[in-house]
Every structure is written in structure tokens, then in C-alpha cells.
Amino acid sequence: MTPLLVARGLAKSFGTRVAVSELSLELRPGETLALVGPNGAGKTTTLRMLAGLIAPSQGHVELNGRELAPESAGWARRQIGILTEAPGLWDRLSVRKNLTVYARLYSLDSPAAVVDAALERFGVLDRAKDPAAQLSKGLRQRVALARALLHDPRVVLLDEPTSGLDPESARGVRELVRGLASEGRAVLICTHNLDEVDRLAARVAVLRTKLLAVDTPQALRARFFGARVRVRLAGDPAPHAGLLRAAGVADVRVEDGALSVALDGSPVKSTPDLVRLLVEAGAQVEEVARETPPLEQVYLRVLSEGHS
Amino acid sequence: MTGRLWALCAKEIADLRLNPGVFAPAIFTAAVALAIPIFIAIVLPAVTGESLSDSSDFRAMAELFTSQPWIRDLTPEGAVQAFIFQQFLVLLVMSPVAASMSSASFSVIGEKQARTLEPLLATPISTTELLGAKILGAFVPAACLTLTTFAIYLAVAAALAAPGVYRALLSPAALAIMFLVGPLASLLSLQLAVCVSSRVNDARSAQQIGALVILPIAGLLIAQLVGGVVLTAWLTLAIAAALVVLNLVVLRVAVALFDRESILTRWK
Predict the structure, then answer these.
(1) Which of A106, A143, A181, A213 could form a disulfide with A151 if both were Cys (CB 3.0 to 4.6 A apart)?
(2) ipTM of the complex
């Protein structure tokens, strides 16, 4: 599928400080890509460059095959919806008025109808007349998201969409974000919430000034931790760990009363082979599960290897 | 283009309506500007029982204006009243604008501080539209207040001053001050405030620079009062023409100085 948004060799410096360098990525329709990285890694700067809000020092961004340039900024802003880190609502104005001003700024044909539909879709119709200042943080984020989507953009860039929200509000926002990708939009999320990344993103990009890794969460897990299987046995697993080592399985650990076995590079290639070997040695297997290390571990590993 | 400009301008005015306290200084200043000439020309003579025309200073100043037909036909007291009403017209025109400077100078800085500027800059709005909306958002309410104040001024002159004095406020020079010089000077002042507002982090800096425009206007008022300058219709039109040029230049400079990237990345 042709990418909607392409970044090639993006770099951005502020004076002598390099905020982003050598960043290349693609975003396809219906895909959610999460951009993660420590504070000051360049996530917001990247988002702003992708949105055409600031110009890269090097490299370029293509939107739907067309290179972003100052003369195409107006066109690009109609194709992109951006949720900034702060909701940025005008506090004294009502929710409806906030959205109506933006509908008119995007020169939409029927601003009132579009705003009504957005209020309904984002579940804030009953608060339409309230000043934005009276909304909870979660509702403010919903309104900001509604505002970012008023003009029906094909590319949606979200800067920490659930930051500071309570779990229920965060779940509500996540549901809305999930819906965006299912509508065929290309979605990029900047976040620190790795649990959210696991739930929402098809691919993860780890950034610390440079892109350290870009792949699916599963592929990153496999790359940095390999395929591991956890086997719980009746009784002490330690003797069976020795048996496996004797059979040539180099990476065997006893953790929390279970065996944790790395199959990559081992003579025991598959989970059934492993179970058979253990059973033949007299072990009573109670539970077998593929180990999924938390994305946080993967992220920290990527950062530490990127650092080294 | 105009759709986006008016959309944002309407938002500015709606925001002001919901926060009338911001406009209170403008209303107060306009009321003071209205009260001073009424007090001098009408209340003070009525309270003291002394006519203004008894003062040789007032008479001498009023004589400077005897070339104006609507003053020539007035009684000596009426001529002095007309002179006073006409002189304070400049103050009347400028005072609401001076007071509304605070909203203009806070316009861009305020958006940045409230973190509402980035979503706004992500829309297709151009810099000219954005600045135009900010300037008009401050100018339109100030101009409405000035016109209201002028209507009251005219009504008071017609009702309480000597017969025919109000016609001095409808002279070509007075009307040019009211409808040309005043609004253009106001626009220039507010433009400067908005322009500076987009470059500094502190609204007070913007106010101080915007207020610079008030100084020459205040100087003009003083020069008139001491008889140094007589604002004829032609002189007023010449000042208006100069202000048109200055307004266009300042708008271009404001657009050129509005650096979206710096505003987004350097302001904290």
C-alpha cells in the first residue's frame, strides 16, 4: 500500500543543538505508528515537522506523494489533523463555539452540521453549550480530538493523547484513536505510555534524536529478546534445567519456580520438541506459555543498545 | 481568505464579550475623556457663575478658529465652548484605543500562554489573516466605543451647550478626525501592539511600543491647545494619508516578523 506520509532524512537543529537527525519513516493508510522515546528525544519536533508546522533543517516530508513546502502549507494543513500536547481550547468559549471557529478556519461547507456531527461522535453533545473551562481533562481531550478531525484529515498526528487522563478517560480516547485507523486514516502517536503502544500501534518507532528502531512490537520483542518459552513443572524445575543445558540448550533460567527457555539458536527448535524432551526425562508439565516480555523491557533494551 | 479572518475576528470579539472586565478600562477612559470637556465647558461655568468668555486666554484661543463659519456665528461663550469641544475630540477618539491596547498587546502572547496557538497555526490560516483578525478583534470594539462616545458627546453639546455649538463637532476637520485620523491612528497603534506581541514574551513590552503612537497624537492635542497648530480639513486629510501609508507598512512588517517556528519552538 502506498504510504500517505513519508519522511526522508529529516533533521532539525536549533542553533548548535541537534533535536532530530537522520529520521526516515513511512506511514500507510489504516496504520497506527507509535513514536516513543525519552523526554527531549525529538518526538514533538518530529511531529511538527511532519505536520509542516516547522521546516526541517535537512531532508523532506512527502504527503500523498507531494513534498511539503511553504507554498503547499495550506494544502497540507487540510490533509493533516494534529492533536497538540495541550488541548489548547479557548476556555471562555463554549465547546460548540470552539469547534465552529475551527470549522470556519478550515472553510468547511456546512460548519454547523460538521460540528454537530463531531459533538455527537465524540460524546460531548450534551456539553456543547458549556464553556471549555468547565470540562474535565478527559472531555477536553475529546473536544481537542474532535477539533483535529473536523476537516476529515487522512493523516492524524497525536501528541500524547492520553497524558494525564484517568484510566476510564484514557480508555475512551484510545477507543476513538483505534477507530481512526479502522477508518483508513494514517495515525501517528507520540507517547510515553508503552502499554498504550501495545494496545494501539501496529508499529513502534523508538527515537532518541535518531531513530533507533522501527518495527512491530512482536518483531522488536523477537529481535531483542528472542523466542522464549516458560514451562511450569510439578516440583523443583532446577534438575530439568540442568538436563536441558546438557542437551545443548544454552539459555535456560529458573525464574519464579518455572523454566524460562530461549529456543533461538538452540538444538531444541520448537515448543513441542521442548515439551517432549522434558516429558521423556520424567518431568510433569503443568503449563507451557510463550513468554512476552513487556514492551517497556524492549524499549529500555533498544535505548541501552542505542546508547552503547 | 476573508472567511478565515472574520472567523477568528468573531472569536476574538466573542471572547471579549465573555470577559467584559478586559474592556472596562477602555469604557472608563472614554467616560473620563467625555467628562473633561463637558466639565470645563458646561459644568464649571454653571457652578462658578463665571462665563468662559470672561477669560482672555480662552478668548484668544477661540479667536484662532474664527475662520470657521460655524464658530464665527456663535456667541462669545458659544465660540469658547465650541473651541473646547473641538479640541478634546482628539482625546475622545484616542482614549478607548489607548485603553484597549492591553487586549491587543496580549492577543498573540495570550494565545501562546494559554497554549491555544499551536492548534491555530496548524490550520490553513495565513499569517496576514491571523494578524488581521487579531488587530480587527481589538479595533472593532474600540471603534464602536469611540462612535458611541462621540454620539453622546454630540448629544450633550446639542442639549447643554450654547445653541449651534454642536455644529463645530460636525465640521469637516472634526469629522475627519473622528472618522479618518482617529481610526487610522488607532489601527496603527493596535497593529504595533499586535506586531510586538508576536515577538516578545511579555505583554507589557507590546503595550509600551503600541503606546508610542499615542505620543504624537497627544502632542498634536497639546499643540492645538496652545495654538501652535490649527487642524484644518486639509491638514487632517494629509495626516490621514500618512497614517494609511504607515498602516500598510506596519502590516507588511508585522507579517514579515511573525516567525511561526520561533513562536512554536522558543516560547515557553
Answers:
(1) A106
(2) 0.83
